[in-house]
Amino acid sequence: MALCLSLREKDGGMRVLQVCALQWSRHEREILSSHGFSQNQLCLWKYPSMAKVAEMSGHTSRVLHLAQSPDGTAVCSAAADETLRFWKCFAEAAPQQKARAHLPFNFCTFSWVAQHASCPQSSFAM
């Protein structure tokens, strides 16, 4: 099955969405996409209808990478503007899912950047 994010606006016009990264929710049927020109935003989509649930902005350059927190509720975005932003965008797991969840630790980008000597603390935006 192919997945397509529509480029057509509700008014019938076209807008270019440069999709840079995708992150699936671990607990809901949702997908988060990050974008570049022209809005540098993150969009949350309901799957499989692909209805846009939310749009999050804050980066001033293309959003290059997404990493999900170990509990699956937050996402860290890294952009060409040299900032990391943290977004609480996914729901928590239901109690029965929490009991059997095996979440691999893949949220190490922040640890390296926080310890890097040339990274000013002011670049960490929430």
Description:
This protein has 126 residues and is mainly beta. The chain has a domain at 16-92. Helix content is 10%, strand content 33%. It contains 2 helices and 8 strands. The chain has helices spanning 95-100, 109-115, and strands spanning 19-24, 30-35, 42-46, 51-56, 63-68, 74-79, 84-88, 124-125. The protein has a 4-stranded antiparallel β-sheet with strand order 1-2-3-4, with no helix packed on it. Strands 5-6-7-8 form a 4-stranded mixed β-sheet, with no helix packed on it. The radius of gyration is 16 Å and the shape is flat. The model is unreliable at 103-126 (pLDDT under 50).
Distance between the amino and carboxyl termini: 36 Å
Low-confidence stretches: 103-126
Count of beta strands: 8
Give the strand content: 25-35%
The side-by-side strand order for the widest beta sheet comes to 1-2-3-4
Which descriptors would you attach to this protein?
disordered C terminus; 4-stranded antiparallel sheet; flat; 33% strand; 8 strands; 4-stranded mixed sheet; 126 residues; mainly beta
